[in-house]
Write a structure and sequence with these properties.
The complex is a heterodimer of chains A (about 240) and B (about 130). By secondary structure, chain A is of the alpha+beta class. Helix content of chain A is about 15%, strand content about 25%. A 9-stranded mixed β-barrel of chain A has the order 1-2-3-4-5-6-7-8-9. Chain B starts with a helix and ends with a strand. In chain B, a hairpin with a 6-residue loop joins strand 1 and strand 2. Chain B is globular, with a radius of gyration of 15 Å. Classes of the chains: A alpha+beta (about 240), B alpha+beta (about 130).
Chain lengths: ~240, ~130
């Protein structure tokens, strides 16, 4: 009798499990559409995969022209990431290191392999009040059907949109629409609305692939950074340090 | 007796890892502008030091100059995690190893570059990837 009850319980549990939607990972929240798992961007790592840029207003156009000239000469300037400072938003969304999305009640958390960075997306109103500008800003999300819509503002001006040095101002508001277009594909339609730096809002759609077998590794940028920015603002290529 | 399947599975893992090389370039924590990525260039030398570190793994190579005197070159690789996913390990290279590499040289002509791939190790063909 006891064996029969156990068999029934196992069968019921199995039935319940097969009826539930398949989740990407153990870190999904059954109350939300599932975008959990380990993802990596596809395509080139400029803000737009096709390297298109927003229409820049002065003085940001001049600043970007100066950076582009230095870049093309092989002497990139103002690249704060070379000093191991965080890339910030929106740059972190286009670096090709993988990141993990974890979903918990009222929260979507993105854990980036790149320098161990974190984005907290608040779905429950728990975001900081009257925040100061930060590298990743303040992100508030809501579900629009199976699309996660995230609005981010309070972003520092001294970061760049990508490694080409594309600038933004502190008036930047970013709207993202995360949507799974296939079981292994996540799309992020990213709109940059920056009335100080850009003549009009600029949108780029980036695509991420799921890597279920990967794990996120540790990455401490300060461990052996030989690319510190030099006194002239140019990214360095350091002399050999002692063997680690 | 127990070691053999472990080694076999590791070998299969390596083959799978190499077969699944990402089309996207592995990357740096800084811009690539300093490197001449149009011209992958062969480099032959002897390993002086292999730094299995972040944000970059570094290969220090002694390369003979025109007069045969060894010159030290620094070759920047991607991160530990990227190389590990592509089949590298912390002891893939050791001081004294003879290597042939392909590198994207520094545009300013100084002794350095970015690893494109390892093609030969101690006289044997190797195929460990770097930046694509």
């Amino acid at each position: 009798m006891r064996a029969l009850a156990l068999t029934l319980a196992v069968a019921l549990a199995a039935g319940a499990a097969s009826a539930a939607p398949t989740l990407n990972s153990r870190y999904a929240d059954p109350a939300q559409p599932d975008i959990s798992g380990i993802w990596q961007v596809t395509g080139w790592f400029s803000f737009s995969a096709d390297k298109a840029i927003p229409k820049l207003r002065p003085p940001y156009d001049g600043l970007y022209a100066k950076r582009t000239t230095a870049f093309n000469a092989g002497k990139p300037i103002d690249d704060v990431t070379a000093d191991c400072l965080p890339p910030g938003m929106p740059h972190i969304q286009v670096v090709p290191y993988p990141f993990e999305i974890m979903q918990t009640p009222g929260r979507v958390t993105m854990l980036f392999e790149y320098a161990g960075q974190v984005r907290r997306i608040y779905l429950d109103g728990g975001q900081p009040k009257e925040p100061d500008p930060t590298y990743y800003g303040t992100s508030v999300g809501r579900w629009d059907g199976d699309t996660l819509v995230v609005t981010t503002n309070n972003i520092r001006e001294d970061t760049q949109d990508d490694f080409s040095g594309l600038p933004h101002s502190d008036a930047l508001t970013i709207t993202e629409r995360f949507h799974r277009t296939a079981p292994d594909t996540l799309e992020d339609r990213i709109t940059l609305d920056d009335p100080k730096a850009y003549a009009e809002p600029f949108t780029s759609t980036r695509v991420y692939k799921l890597h279920p077998a990967w794990t996120i590794g540790e990455y401490v940028c300060e461990e052996n950074n030989r690319n510190q920015i030099q006194a002239n603002g140019v990214t360095g290529f350091g002399v050999p340090t002692a063997s680690k | 007796m127990m070691e053999r399947p472990v080694h076999l599975s590791r070998l299969i893992g390596l083959v799978l890892a190499l077969a699944a090389l990402p089309a996207a370039p592995a990357l740096a924590h800084h811009s690539f502008a300093m490197f001449d990525r149009e011209h992958a260039t062969p480099m032959t030398g002897v390993i002086k030091d292999f730094q299995w570190t972040n944000p970059h793994v570094w290969i220090q190579v002694l390369v003979p100059d025109a007069k045969g005197a060894p010159q030290e070159w620094g070759v920047e690789c991607t991160s530990v995690n990227f190389l590990r996913r592509e089949g590298w390990e912390k002891d893939s290279l050791k001081p004294g190893d003879k290597v042939k590499l392909m590198i994207f040289p520094l545009k300013d002509g100084s002794h350095g570059g970015q690893l494109n791939k390892l093609v030969e190790l101690n006289g044997s063909t190797a195929s460990l990837p770097g930046y694509q």
